[in-house]
Structure formats: C-alpha cells, structure tokens
Amino acid sequence: MDDKKLPVPQPPPSPERRRFLKRAAQVGLAAGVSGIAMAALWNALSHPVIPRGYVTTDPGILRPPGALAEDEFLAACIRCDRCRDACDTKAIRIFGPDEGRLAGTPHIVAQEHACNLCLLCTQACPTGALAETREVTQVRMGTAVVDRRLCVSWNGSGACGACHTICPLKNKAIRQGLYNRPEVFAEHCVGCGLCEEACIVKDRKAIRVFSERAWS
Amino acid sequence: MSALRKAWTALCPKPGWQWARRGVQAAAIALLFLLPVLARYNNYLASRELDGVMERWQDRSQGQILAATDQALRATGSEEQVFEGNPRRNREELQERLARYRGSVWSVEIAGVSMTDPLAVAESASASKQLRWVLFVGLLLPLGITLILGRVFCSWVCPMNTLLELTDKLRGVLKFLELPPHNLRFWRGNKFLLLGMGILAALLFSVPLLGYFYPPAIFGREIHNWVNVFFDRAEAGAPGISWLGGLSIASGFVLGVMVLEVFVSERLWCRYLCPGGALYCLLGKFRTVRVRRDVAKCTDCADCITVCGMGLNPMRDVTGIECDNCALCITYCEPRALSFRFDLFDPRPQGPGQGLPKVPAAPVPEPKAVEVPERAKAVAS
C-alpha cells in the first residue's frame, strides 16, 4: 500500500484558533464600520461650503425659511423630512445621498418651484434648524438680484412687471420704475423666490435669489 | 363572556404580549408608508388638484390610494359642506388635521404629539453645541417611555428589528437544510464605542454622522423618497411603478445588515453595533419594568435563552441594561415562571429553578433474605 495516499490526520481546531478567528472577525467588523464612517466623514469634509463675505455669481443653496446660518444649519438638521412633509407647495426638496454632508437636508429650487411663505416648515422642524417664524417679514432666505442686461423692462425690449405682480411684499421689496423696471430693496426682500419663478425670461432668469449666507 | 374567552384562548394560547407587540410593529410600518401618502394628499388638497388628480389616475394605483385616503378621511371628518347635493370637503379643517401627522421614525408627529429619537437629539445638540428648547419638546415622550419601560423602542417599534425578526426565519430555514449558520458572539461594548465615536465626531466636525447609519432614520428617508417618486412618476405620466425608484445606497446598508444577520450572527446589528440601541440601553438602566423569575415555578428548561433575541439569560435573573422588554421569554416560558414586575434593580441571582416536576421515585425492590448454603457457613467459620 502506498503511504502517500493515506489521508493525513488533521489536528482538531484548538480553542486558541477559534478565539483568534473570533477576534479577527471582530477586528475586521470594527475596521469596516469605522472605515465606512471615515469615508463618509472625508466625503462630508471635502465638500466646500462657501465662506461668508465671498462674492460669487453662484446663487448658493436656498434653504427653507427660518434656516440658521449654513454651518449651524448643517449641524442642527437631523435630516428627518418633516419640513418636506409640511410643505404644501412641495417647494422643499431633499438632497440625494451623493451630496456629501448636504445629503438629506432640505433646499428650494426657486426657478422651478418657489416658496410661498406659509411658514409651516418652521413649525414642523423638531430641532430648531428652521427657527420658528411667525412673521413673513422676519424671513431671511436670501435676496433677489436683477440682471439688467436680461430683464426685458430694463434692456428696452418690453415692459413686463411679472416679478412685481407676484412679490408678496410688493412696493416694499420690489418697486417699479419707468416701463415697469423692477428694483429690489434688499432690506425688505425675504428671498422667497416667487419673482424668480415668475420671471418670463427663458433659459436664464433675469431676477435670481442669491442665498443670504453665500454673499452677505 | 366564556365564549369570548374560549375564542381568545384558541387564537392566542400564550399570554397576549406578542400580539400586542406585533400590532405595534405593524402600526409602525404602516405609518412609515402612510405619513408620506398623507403629506402628498395634503399637497394635492392645498393646490386644489385633488379631484382632478383622482379622476386622471383612476386606473392607476396612485389614484386608487388617494381615493381610499380621501374616503377614509371623509368618513372620520366632521363637517362637510353640501353644495347642490354634492358634498365638498371642508378643506381648511382637513388640512389642519393633516398638519398634525408628519415625519418618520427618526422624528414624527402623530396627532400633534412630536416625538424625536433621543439619538437625533443628542447628535443635533452636540453638533450645533446648543440646547434649543424645541429639541426637548420632541424628546419628552420617548425619554419618559424609555425611563419607565426600558429599551422598548427596539423591540416594539424599530422597523429594522421587525425586519430582522423576519430574517431570523431564514436562519431557521438554513438550520432545517442542515446548513446551520454561524452564530458568532462579539463584545457588546462595541455599540457604546460606536455611539461615543459618533457623538465625538459630531462635537469635533459638527456633522451628525450617526443618522446616516442608523436604520430607523434610513427607513424613514428611503420610504419617504420611495413614496414621493411613486407619485412623481404618475405626475410625469410614466407608466407603472418603479420598484427601486428613489431608493439610495442606504437601502444597501440595510440589506447588508440583513445578510450579516443571516450568515454571521443572530441580531448582530442590534446586539453589538446599533448606536441608537446603545443610547436606549443607557437610558433604560433604571427602568421600572423588568422581567422577573419565579424560582418556585422555573424548571431550568432554558427555553427563554433560546428565544431571546438579545442573547440574554433570564434564568440567571440579571438581564442588565441590554433587555429590551420584548416579552418573548415570558411568552415562551412553559411553566409561566417569568413575568413583568415593577422594580428598579435586578435582584441577586436566585439559583437554580425549583419547579421541577415531582416524578414519583421508582419502587426500589426490597432486598430479599438470601439463603446462605450450609457449605458456605462452614467455610466462613
């Protein structure tokens, strides 16, 4: 009989080996979880937030009314979707998971769907990230800015007045001059974005809301 | 009455805790889907599009769901204005009522009562380094319930736990196929470490990170997204239902937790990793409702150990902070030795159970007088 074909008896798994395997699985699991956490953290920190006092042509992120300053808002918001549920006009949208530290936070795209300042979201927020606001005039979402080269009333191609008509604080935030030329008064403008939604200029709106936190 | 009792015992031979628990779990899952639907309904109502939308989507599931919601709300509503025999909803009254139902498990408002997960409050407060009173309004009820009843959120409400209890059946199938899955044990302190790391990260980087890895929060966001995409598709005129519409990689995380549950260890996430569970553990340290053992009845059959999802041993009398009061051990205790009692602390171990059935001792045959033969006597002398 050939000795080589005999099965080699294996030693039974020892308690040390079992303990080592267990420990290894544990360490692996911990490393995996902390790895995911670190990756998420890296992703979150690598997304730049526009610093204050920075003048830009990027209108910035328009947060719902009552929102704290951007950094405080990102810290306080728990991404619970209650403001989106509360929003009757479905103006509030939620950032998707690929947006880093912005993921899950509410924002408004004014030129597609503007806020109508019902302020229900400020009552719905459980953390105070959207501070409870009762008066429309206390809202500071941002400021509308008119681009006089694009506005039909300003560049001489017509007389429109759509933004003035829809403005909830008309004759305070937006006043009209000759040929319905709109002028924005920043101390009254709350930044709801209704003017941006109503603007008749195609492709690029002549009046846009710059979020307060981005440039003031 | 006796007939009712008979019917009840036929339906539910065990004490009724599990029925109550399943009911609460089902209600939690139903609310997860119902609240975004109600929000959507409110949206159409507010924009005065509801009737048009219900007519346009008559043949679609979206329209049917909205119609059912409408019917239910009308049945429970108070006044309806009647114009020429045509009942109209009282829009303002309805909207006022609907505004009191919103959110998900992470933070919810039901009938005007706001409830926020303690983990969310802890993260928000430590990330923004501020204590706003709004936080405590939502914290009041969850904190009170946890202080009195212990870690009941985990076993009675958490949708992840419900799902994992279902996933456990797969483990049973694997065992039946004689492919017994692993059941590794880890250090339970892991979850407290994770909780500490998360709070530390929130303090250092002002990012509430744990919310992205906490299954109840994930469930809330994903189901909200899913329902919204479900209605968005109808608005866009797209046919059918997109089964994965609106779901993100976070759902993959939940799936991963389920896979770990099946192949690595029973209730791996809840026992060893869940940061929210860790917080509930700590809050439930001085809970008043505890599982107690009656030593006189206990037979040391160890059914309670087999059944416990958290891997505890009620037979040793000390369940500590990990017990989530799911009442499974109480339900499956054959001699009814376990029950809920009001107590602030675990007692000293009471030793082995003394409820062993008294088996009548087998009759021992009387030793017969053996006749010693004469010859032997002679040898002895």
How does this model look, in words?
The complex is a heterodimer of chains A (216) and B (381). Chain A is α+β, with helices and mostly antiparallel strands. Helix content of chain A is 29%, strand content 10%. Chain A has a domain of 146 residues: Alpha-Beta Plaits (2-Layer Sandwich). Chain A contains seven helices and six strands, in the order αααββαβαββαβα. In chain A, the strands form three sheets. A two-stranded antiparallel sheet of chain A has the order 1-2. Chain A has a two-stranded antiparallel sheet with strand order 3-6. A two-stranded antiparallel ribbon of chain A has the order 4-5. In chain A, strand 4 and strand 5 form a beta hairpin. The longest helix of chain A is centred in the N-terminal third of the chain and has 32 residues. Chain A is elongated, with a radius of gyration of 28 Å. The model of chain A has no long low-confidence stretch (mean pLDDT 85). Chain B is elongated and about 125 Å long. Chain B has a three-stranded antiparallel beta sheet with strand order 3-4-5. Chain B contains 17 helices and seven strands. In chain B, helix 9 crosses helix 12 and helix 11 packs across helix 12. Chain B is mostly helical. Chain B starts with a helix and ends with a helix. Classes of the chains: A alpha+beta (216), B mainly alpha (381).
Write the topology of this structure.
The complex is a heterodimer of chains A (216) and B (381).
Chain A: H1 15-46, H2 70-76, H3 82-86, E1 92-94, E2 106-108, H4 120-124, E3 142-146, H5 162-166, E4 174-176, E5 182-184, H6 194-198, E6 207-211, H7 212-215
Chain B: H1 2-11, H2 17-46, H3 50-56, H4 61-76, E1 81-83, E2 86-88, H5 91-98, E3 102-104, E4 107-110, E5 113-116, H6 118-128, H7 133-149, H8 152-157, H9 159-176, H10 189-205, H11 215-236, H12 249-263, H13 268-273, H14 275-283, E6 289-293, H15 303-307, H16 328-331, E7 338-342, H17 374-380
Antiparallel strand pairs in B: 1-2, 3-4, 4-5, 6-7
Helix pairs in contact in B: 2-5, 2-11, 3-4, 6-10, 9-12, 10-14, 11-12
